[in-house]
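Structure ticket #2291
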Amino acid sequence: MTEEPSLEELEAQERRLVFQRFSHEDAWELGSFLVDLARVRDAPVAIDIHRAGQQLFHAALPGSTPDNDAWIARKRRVVERYGSASYLVGARHRAKGTTFEESSRLDPDTYAAHGGSFPITVEGVGVIGAVTVSGLPQLQDHQLVVEALEHFLAD
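Resolution: structure written out below.
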């Protein structure tokens, strides 16, 4: 089992994984790269990229279900509301000895602070969207997105 990253590590990921710009073409390339990563691993995931309320990319790989799309929407709403990765939002609550569901008072059918949705942040602009994966355990969903972002932004 992979050890849960610290809050400092999760926050550092957000500071590091920032775009200079984010276009429709970037969404296609990032989403396609995530699909390739997931296929190599036989990961039964759905992948979604939203920017400014518009879905720019979506893919559902074999083994994913409509439930994954519902999880994507719930995790993405956490990013949109808090401006942070869904996993980090949940980890902040766990670090305080509570849960997101207990302390946020938000409808759990609408919001899920589970790993897999990461903010698309543009330097000098802020959070403009989210890239989200659903279908694996939450830490693995988060790690898959982070790995793809690290690769994409290194090019």
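Closing remark: The first helix runs from residue 7 to 16.
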